[in-house]
Amino acid sequence: QVQLVESGGGLVQTGGSLRLSCAASGRTFRSCTMGWFRQAPGKERDFVAAISWTIGRPNYAYYTNSVKGRFTISRDSAKNTVYLQMNNLKFEDTAVYYCAADDGSYYSGSYYNSKSDEYDYWGQGTQVTVSS
Known about the structure:
Distance between the termini: 40 Å
Number of helices: 0
Helix content: under 10%
Strand content: over 45%
Order of helices and strands: EEEEEEEEEEE
Largest sheet: 7 strands, mixed
Shape: globular
């Protein structure tokens, strides 16, 4: 059974940084797109970033416009872990952050999967609070 466990959330001041981790267990994904989504109180769950990989091909990263230049998604294949480095955090970044896996997918062009209902596995979420 696949499990995704997020960690690294917390309270930070505006302009600060956090690094979120998402550790996958239960299987090794040969092809996969791992995404980060976030949900603020009273709002929908929104796409933040994703990284797509498959054996023998390059990784591709995707970001929503509001985090480009501030957030970086990366992957450590040996640890089966995906990271989201968040710099220059803003008050509006406050949300519960979830990682999710779209098993079997690989995106290498302009199209990628940002729809939450198409991801197969989800973590429990980690709270990120940015104080102004």
